[in-house]
Amino acid sequence: MLVVQNTRSTISAGIASYYMQARGIPQENRLSINCSTDEIVSKTECETNIIAPIRAYLQDPENSGIDYIVLTKGVPLGANYGYSTGPISVTSILTCVTETGVTGPITNPYGPTAWPVVDTAFSHQLTLGGKHLYLVTRLDGYTVQDIYGLIDRSMAATRNGTALIDARVVSSPPSFVTMNDRLLAACPILTSRGVTTTCDSTNNFMGGASGLIAYFSWGSNDPYYNHAAYASNTFVPGSIADTYVSTSGRTFNPTTGGQSLIADLIPLGACGLAGYVSEPYANFTTYPNVLFDRYTRGYNMAESFYAACPEIFWKMVAIGDPLMAPFANPPNVSVEQPQAPLTGVATVSATASDPSGVSKVEFYFEGQHIGTATQAPYMATVDTTQYTVGPHTVEAVAFENSPAAPQGFASAVVTVQNTISNLSVIADAFGSPDGQGVRATDVVVSAGTAEMGGGDFYVQEADRASAMRIISTEEVIAGDVVTLEGPLVTDSGERCVFAPTITNRRTPSAQPNPMVMPNRSLGGSDVSIYTGGVTDGSGARNLSLLVKTLGKVTYIGMGSEQFFYIDDGSRLDDGSGHSGLKVNSRTLLKPALNKWVAVTGLSSCEEVGGRVIRALKPRRQSDVQPLTQ
């Protein structure tokens, strides 16, 4: 699932957050684009500021598992591609976003005009010309509360509702007769699936129905259309609706006049809808018989609407949570809990069952696909030496052996224990005790061996997220990119790697920039029982990180005292009798008393009288800069 928000729209970001929280979608599956907030935009705007960044995201190998794209209100609805009948739908354009040079329309290879009719889950990595096809919907409505309500009802979807199929009396043109026949053909399908269905083929325009799970009418194209009746039907959570109206999806902003809108049905409780941003032509409208057949057989909302859609890169816009599937019966699945910690190349397993059978079980370890099993016992192997020691999440997804392939999901937390903990980030080490071996790959040296006096150096992540002191006499310089491996120790309250093996040195990169912070923020709070911050510390732990702070010199060490104190007004008291933050100057020249200075150095600490006090270690003389008063 990829959720797209527009940085120019606060509404867009809020809806994205609300939906992602509801569905448990990880933050790395959110993409911010910067585009116009107009509902209809130019082809250039669409291709430059919408298609291009989404295509770039999807072409990243790490995002190869994406099947669904969800746009949010604030992202444009349609784009003008030069058609005399009006704009085309952005959601429909994005179904084949990885294709280039398409101007539309394209016959949907998994739609109702495919021969033989394709009856398969559209979302499962299907392709067009070798390129992946995506199911694209948007979360939209007249108000933010309408959209939040749509999301809430999708999450509470039920199959306990009735259907209203409102056909009309029509004898011409032939295309209208065909459309009406498809609409009437939906009635026996719904009835056969146990859905109580009202099927009207008279000149009445139906209204006043309640508890609808399915609705389809001619809307304002019915000669007897009545808006009050149209707006009097109410829906249950999990409901879907559509109409034969050429511009039913032309806007999701409050408006008056013109043809009936599917947006009018959202405040009435409809959860999944489809409409058209402009004239699609009669032959390219939704096939209601296919739509309701797929939905009541367990396909999700997005799969059902796209299975019923003859053309992509065209006019249809789908609204709602694509995963909504109240008629699905997913397999039962559970991840088996191992009796002992996983070590080396280990096996994870799951049990799965379904009356229709299980076609496969896919396994994921910390979100990364590790294997697929097509028969019991369902198992996959994982090389745990590539992960950090400690807890990890194993997930299993079981697919029902049916065309709709509903998916059952289960997860479990397992423990990895190896001699060496392979760190994805330095902070992964903070949950391990002293003695545990760790491996940090491609970390940046922030302070070299010579700068720190020859007995240690410091490394940190390129994004400055976490850092570590390294006790070593091996010569490195600031900017080196290294891989190192060794045991954890704690020295004077600071977590370190002791005497590591250093490999894979790379050409020095740009030296890391310091994080600027006030005196009081240095050190930070505890991370775990093994990795603490400083006494009375608060905020994120930043020990070993390259930082910059300032203050007035309140004390200058005398004789062998290789330190001075600065105070920026935090009025720190470390029990030494000196006010402020201790700066370990070593052999560097100390500034004058009462002078203001800016100091860059390593956020450090010392154990004094049962307390862990803040300290700052400048690397070189230029790290201590006088400030003009």
Q: What are the salient characteristics of this protein?
A:
single chain; 38 strands; 34% strand; 4 domains; five-stranded mixed beta barrel; Immunoglobulin-like; OB fold (Dihydrolipoamide Acetyltransferase, E2P); 629 residues; six-stranded mixed β-sheet; alpha/beta
Provide the fold topology:
Layout: E1 2-6, H1 10-23, E2 30-33, E3 40-42, H2 43-59, E4 68-72, E5 78-80, E6 88-89, H3 90-93, E7 106-107, E8 127-128, E9 131-132, E10 135-139, H4 144-155, E11 162-166, H5 174-192, E12 197-200, E13 212-217, H6 227-230, E14 235-243, E15 272-276, H7 288-296, H8 301-307, E16 311-312, E17 316-319, E18 332-335, E19 345-353, E20 358-365, E21 368-373, E22 378-383, E23 390-400, E24 407-416, E25 420-423, E26 437-447, E27 456-460, E28 467-471, E29 481-491, E30 494-498, E31 501-506, E32 515-516, E33 546-556, E34 563-567, E35 581-584, E36 596-608, E37 611-617, E38 624-626
Parallel strand pairs: 1-2, 1-4, 3-5, 4-10, 11-12, 11-13, 13-14, 14-15, 25-26, 28-30, 32-33, 35-37
Antiparallel strand pairs: 5-6, 7-16, 8-9, 15-17, 18-19, 19-22, 20-21, 20-23, 23-24, 26-27, 26-29, 27-28, 29-30, 29-31, 33-34, 33-36, 34-35, 36-37, 36-38
Helix pairs in contact: 1-4, 5-7, 7-8
